[in-house]
Amino acid sequence: MTPDTASIVQGTLSTQPVEALRAQLRGPLLTPEHAEYQAARQIWNGMIDRKPALIARCAGAADVRACVRFARAQRIAVSIRGGGHNIAGTSLCDGGLVIDLSGLRSVEVDPLTRRAHVQPGAKLADFDAEAQAFGLACPLGINSTTGVAGLTLGGGFGWLSRKYGMTIDSLLSADLVNANAEFMHVNDRENPEVFWALRGGGGNFGVVTRFEFQLHSVGPDVLSGLIVYPMEQAKSVLLGYRELITKLPDDFSVWLVLRKAPPLPFLPAPAHGQPVLVLAAFYAGSDASEGQRGLEPFRRLGVPLGEHVGTQPYAAWQQAFDLLLAPGARNYWKSHNLNTLSDAAIDIALDYAGRLPSPHCEIFFGLLGGQASRIERTATAYPHRDSLFALNVHARWESVREDGPCIDWARALFRSMAPEATGGVYVNFLTEDESGRVRDAYGPNYERLAAIKQRIDPDNLFRANQNIAPHDSEVRA
């Protein structure tokens, strides 16, 4: 018996099957005694403290298949780790097996066909670096340390979504290891029902070992930046913003962020730490002068405290918010989808922005619409094509003693905003205590997803997620 398998014998697993799994894997298999175990169970959200029995750092699809067979045979919990960025911490499970894909970070770009083959451990920064070498990009998120896999499987949106749609709208195919440890290639022609389910259905249907994306011409330099207003002007600015976005071309994306001002060099020192309204602006077109003209009305909504808008590499803009979203802090989110920025929604947001419990807390309205809204809501598992905003109440803080005030603030804001929301929610923004909202995340597509789950994973092996439970109901038309 080796030292790092001794505790397994005392738990639910015996040494023999663990050692048999270790012999099958090309990557290392970590147990709690392993020197790398503690680091391997750290993920982005510092609130998550789970202790898996095993962490398999997979070196390829063969390792994944071996892990799935092992989990089924041993009847233990299994979770899938890609980038480890999910707010709910679903990449870790207590006492089970983590299929850790974080070392699989290859991104291969074919500039002739404008396609990218991406492994499931890749992060946005990996994808952007390779694609931007050829002036190409895919609609992704806004934090470069986010994992491509989890972002995509939940739907995925970011600065390019108004022009090119959700991340899943650029997904061409995927390779999948299902609950029977079988390899599946899925696209619109091969296993189309599973491909439909992967586009928004999260990690419910298997372990994706490769993604294929269509790429689009972007950059390498883009016009982007921040326009910052003092909070006392916020209401009038928001009312004007609401009118401007009704005629906003798809090339433009302007998000709203209410928070305390970081010590940005273009802001006057007295504004640092004070509540502000930030317009985060992005222009996906090729003519920067046209972009500047298009953003001019947003500069005239009031008297800005400062602005920093100009051309910069697209990959740099994708990393602009990384310092504000660095791993290790404690995070708790509450989220709504909104079809409009009503007067009441504005008043509620301003009320809570005036009593932020931590300098790291923020309220952001991610603007959607454009191409993302032109896809039929049943065309992919992600159904919220009519949502104009994804509101994220992002509570973030540093110490355990701040847990209560920060979580209470987020929940109270969420409750107050509910009458102004659609009832839907973006699944990637759900926290670990929101399993009751899974149906809200899928709306009219839930029954079809549950029927697919029944066929492909009837035992619900892949349940460490915002879970779609399998059942025998028929797919609804």
Describe this structure as you would to a colleague.
By secondary structure, the protein is α+β, with helices and mostly antiparallel strands. The chain has three domains: 6-100, Uridine Diphospho-n-acetylenolpyruvylglucosamine Reductase, domain 2; 107-217, Uridine Diphospho-n-acetylenolpyruvylglucosamine Reductase, domain 3; 221-435, Vanillyl-alcohol Oxidase, Chain A, domain 3, CATH 3.40.462.20. It has helices at 6-10, 15-24, 37-40, 61-74, 124-132, 148-153, 161-164, 192-198, 234-244, 288-299, 314-317, 343-353, 403-417, 438-442, 446-456, and strands at residues 29-30, 54-57, 78-81, 97-100, 107-110, 115-118, 136-137, 171-177, 183-186, 207-214, 216-217, 221-230, 252-260, 275-283, 306-313, 330-338, 362-367, 389-397. Strands 15-12-14-13-17-18-16 form a seven-stranded antiparallel β-sheet. A hairpin with a 5-residue loop joins strand 8 (171-177) and strand 9 (183-186). Helix 12 (343-353) runs antiparallel to helix 13. The radius of gyration is 22 Å and the shape is globular. Mean pLDDT is 95; it is low at 1-10 and 473-477.
Protein topology:
Blueprint: H1 6-10, H2 15-24, E1 29-30, H3 37-40, E2 54-57, H4 61-74, E3 78-81, E4 97-100, E5 107-110, E6 115-118, H5 124-132, E7 136-137, H6 148-153, H7 161-164, E8 171-177, E9 183-186, H8 192-198, E10 207-214, E11 216-217, E12 221-230, H9 234-244, E13 252-260, E14 275-283, H10 288-299, E15 306-313, H11 314-317, E16 330-338, H12 343-353, E17 362-367, E18 389-397, H13 403-417, H14 438-442, H15 446-456
Parallel strand pairs: 2-4, 3-4
Antiparallel strand pairs: 1-2, 5-6, 6-10, 7-11, 8-9, 8-10, 12-14, 12-15, 13-14, 13-17, 16-18, 17-18
